[in-house]
Amino acid sequence: MTTDLRGLQPQHPTLYQLAPDGESLEFLFAQCPACGKLVFPANVPGCSHCGDPLQGAEKVARPGGGKLLEYVTLHVPLLPGMEVPRIAADILIDDGLIEEGVIAGSDESALRVGMALRAIGVAQPGGETFACRFVAAEGAAR
Predict the structure, then answer these.
(1) I need a surface site. Which of 74, 104, 111, 142 has the fewest CB within 10 A?
(2) Is residue 1 part of a domain?
(3) Is 141 within a domain?
(4) In-domain check, residue 69
């Protein structure tokens, strides 16, 4: 779907990194040394589960993806330069952890609430960075 992105930098390096396949993304979590739970993103100042300050917390890379909870197509740009239409979604990326994400493409017809999604890198204009976008995971029910 995309080209090899290994020569580009992540648009948000505290949230994700490129996986070894050169297309998929890995999300960056911190593992709380007090309660052992994962926290996203890895650079948060404290554990959302127990309140530990996360000093010395181990950084953990996990395959990027999740479960589609809800989505909406935006037809009006919310920011200058934002391309529309764009599909914004709430995605369950880990147990109890919901994040907002952008679905690759602008056609909602293949989307189903509850479907599995995979995070991929998409090269951004200028050719220096890649952003996170979500696509249907292999074998996801459509």
Answers:
(1) 142
(2) no
(3) no
(4) yes
Q: pLDDT of 28-54, one tens digit each?
A: 999 999 999 999 999 999 999 999 999
Q: How far is CA 136 from the centre of its chain?
A: 13
Of the candidates 130, 104, 118, the residue with the CA atom closest to the CA atom of residue 4: 130
Q: Give residue for tokens 């764009």.
A: 86
Residue with tokens 């993103």, as numbered in its chain: 41
Q: Tell me: the pLDDT tens digits for 54-104? A: 998 999 999 999 999 999 999 999 888 888 999 999 999 988 889 999 999
If one counts the domains in the chain, the total is 1
Q: Which tokens go with 38? A: 């994962």
Report in angstroms the alpha-carbon separations of 39 from 45, 54, 123, 141: 10, 9, 27, 28
Range of the domain at 122: 9-136
